[in-house]
């Protein structure tokens, strides 16, 4: 995967530069190639210590969508273990493999997808890709189910819904992903609002204040229908998921005041109207385009949020509790 950012009027030139980078790549200087590959391996391995919360999150989303699977394979634990297994490959063999990949890229199978924050989404015209043969523009929905042919690239640590990784550096990172509803289901508005409520309420106090973790986060991925739950520098990460379940069960029996709900609505709306960068607008447009969400649906969801009631939040809690048996949990301990 090659990606970059550019201004709207520089798209043609950017594609040309990317094509030239691939065309002119030269792997004949073996000593330099060996040095670059060694630096790359060290960088990937060190990311295991620097990016544990990110690695946990990606690992939790594994198998729930094509997008989640691909991110884990190329930017998660699977990538780290893939590199570890191959860091001592002879440089001559490495050069041969890279030249083969270059040939495959130039002979076909090259696809460009342009995310444009101003015009929603555009696919590059084949006329711009004169450097490549066999170019076929396509649209791939990132929210479809995981395809079986990707499974061989995944690092296998456990066949269960829970995985534990021993780590000699920073420990106590945990994450859980729960597929609650289909992507873009209207009721995800309630679960998203509930997530904000949990982040600032009893769940935060139990895990952050009482248990002593440095942080706890919950959130919802509307395109995939996933609820995610993360803790870091957590002295008892294996216990945190049970505290989440306990907090939701208690929430169903509590009385939520109108003042609490109004504060929650203000907080949720504030996050949605914050000014976005062009890149953020482009990514949002990309997700909404593939999710086939028209403008009127956004207005409908916004109206649901403004009309939020106590029973809506409790419906979200019940949906979340009912879906917990399908969770996937990852812990660095």
List the helices and strands and how they pair.
Layout: H1 11-23, H2 30-50, H3 52-61, H4 66-75, H5 77-86, H6 91-107, E1 113-115, E2 121-123, E3 162-165, E4 173-179, H7 188-199, H8 202-210, E5 215-221, E6 226-232, H9 237-251, H10 258-273, H11 278-290, H12 295-306, H13 310-323, E7 328-332
Parallel strand pairs: 3-7
Antiparallel strand pairs: 1-2, 4-6, 4-7, 5-6
What does this structure look like?
By secondary structure, the chain is an alpha+beta fold. It has helices spanning 11-23, 30-50, 52-61, 66-75, 77-86, 91-107, 188-199, 202-210, 237-251, 258-273, 278-290, 295-306, 310-323, and strands spanning 113-115, 121-123, 162-165, 173-179, 215-221, 226-232, 328-332. The strands form 2 sheets. The chain has a 5-stranded mixed β-sheet, sandwiched between helices. Strands 1-2 form a two-stranded antiparallel sheet. Helix 2 packs across helix 6 (91-107), helix 4 (66-75) runs parallel beside helix 5 (77-86) and helix 8 packs antiparallel against helix 9. The radius of gyration is 23 Å and the shape is globular.
């Amino acid at each position: 995967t090659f990606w970059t950012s550019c201004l709207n009027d520089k798209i043609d030139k950017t594609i040309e530069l990317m094509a030239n980078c691939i065309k002119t790549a030269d792997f004949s200087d073996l000593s330099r190639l060996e040095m670059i590959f060694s630096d790359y391996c060290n960088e990937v391995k060190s990311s295991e210590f620097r990016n544990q919360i990110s690695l946990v999150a990606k690992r939790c989303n594994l198998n729930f969508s094509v997008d989640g699977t691909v991110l884990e394979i190329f930017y998660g634990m699977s990538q780290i273990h893939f590199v570890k297994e191959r860091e001592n490959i002879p440089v001559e063999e490495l050069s041969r493999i890279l030249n083969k990949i270059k040939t495959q890229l130039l002979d076909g199978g090259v696809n460009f997808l342009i995310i444009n924050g101003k015009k929603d989404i555009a696919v590059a015209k084949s006329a711009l890709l004169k450097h490549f043969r066999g170019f076929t523009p396509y649209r791939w929905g990132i929210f479809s189910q995981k395809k079986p042919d990707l499974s061989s690239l995944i690092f296998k640590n456990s066949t269960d819904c829970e995985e534990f990784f021993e780590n000699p550096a920073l420990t106590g990172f945990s994450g859980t992903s729960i597929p609650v509803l289909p992507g873009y289901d209207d009721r995800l508005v309630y679960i998203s609002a509930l997530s904000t409520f949990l982040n600032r309420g009893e769940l935060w106090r139990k895990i952050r204040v009482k248990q002593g973790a440095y942080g706890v986060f919950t959130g919802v991925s509307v395109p995939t229908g996933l609820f995610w739950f993360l803790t870091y520098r957590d002295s008892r990460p294996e216990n945190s998921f049970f505290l989440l379940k306990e907090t939701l069960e208690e929430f169903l029996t509590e009385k939520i005041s109108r003042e609490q709900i109004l504060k929650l609505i203000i907080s949720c709306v504030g996050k949605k109207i914050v000014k976005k960068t062009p890149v953020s607008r482009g990514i949002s447009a990309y997700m909404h385009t593939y999710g086939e969400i028209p403008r009127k649906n956004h207005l409908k969801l916004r109206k649901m949020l403004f009309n939020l009631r106590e029973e809506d939040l409790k419906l979200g809690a019940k949906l979340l509790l009912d879906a917990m048996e399908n969770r996937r949990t990852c812990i660095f301990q």
